[in-house]
Amino acid sequence: EAIARQARAKSVLPVRAFERLCEGNKSTPSDERITDPNEQRALLALLHDLGVVVAHGLRQNAPAVRREITILDPNWLTQAIYTLINSPTVRDQGGELRLDQIGGLLDPERYPELLHELIVSMMQEPSLSLCLPISDAGPLRFLLPDALPVNEPDYGVWPDVALRFRYQYRLLPTGFIPRFIVAAHRSLTDHPTWWRTGV
Length: 199
Known about the structure:
Blueprint (H helix, E strand, L loop, with lengths): L1 H9 L1 E3 H9 L13 H14 L3 E2 L8 H5 E4 L1 H12 L2 H5 L3 E3 L3 H4 L10 H8 L8 E3 L6 E3 L32 H9 L15
């Protein structure tokens, strides 16, 4: 109960704060204290599975930033993600988001700059695939596939010499089209055109 209350109050809880809550204090009855690191991890996994908190760093190979920030209020993260995906700025930029723009799109009090990298890294989780890095020179940019237009824009008349490919899959691999868009974005025509299902 105290852990869930802390997660709601602070949104993000560092690893050491979670461990201190488990260990309790002098007034905590000894049978309510959890001092064994394996039991603490098991409790965190249970709370995560129940949806009370979103716990990061449970995987052994989790990035360092996630091992340090253990507990997140699920609504805190969800609201940040939806705000970015539904942002008119991101939509007007063709689904692209620069890391340095996040501070202007999210409430700075609720989402301080030091947590922007965490939010973006969570959006890149393979189970979510809500954000893909666009690697090129310049400021760090990401493609948010869900912010792309649903319908193919009117490109006009295709030149006769245009090279076109059509891939058909019985079962489309998860995230294939957004990853293809990111990989192909530098090779697009002079008038780059992309939408949720093609380029």
